[in-house]
Amino acid sequence: MSSAALHEPTFLILAALAEGRKHGYGLIAEAETLSGGRVTLRVATLYTALDRLRKEGLIAPAGEEVIEGRLRRYYELTHDGAATLTQEIARMEQLAARATIRLRHRPGFAFGWGGGAWA
């Protein structure tokens, strides 16, 4: 488990696996959903990240199956992966809380989200 911040694609992969095993294209779709459409993982980026995360012990193979003639490899989050994801969520929450406090102290700034724009 590392204390360094996770890159966003890594965070999204771990978050996608938090609810259960997924195959590569499922991870690509889930990363796009989780990011609100901002992040689209490229296949090469995904598989490079999956290899690295597997070597780091954050994810593990979780089976294979052939669907319509194509092999799907599934991955799942390990205990260390879940701990790393939890640590990163806590780090991000702390940063967001600190930023929120600073915004609230900004003169003439009404803090809040209303209708898609800062109120």
UniProtKB/TrEMBL annotation:
Q: What is the lineage of its organism?
A: Bacteria, Bacillati, Actinomycetota, Actinomycetes, Micrococcales
UniProt-listed Pfam families:
PadR
Residue span(s) of domain Transcription regulator PadR N-terminal:
13-86
Q: Which domain of life is it from?
A: Bacteria
Its recorded name reads PadR family transcriptional regulator
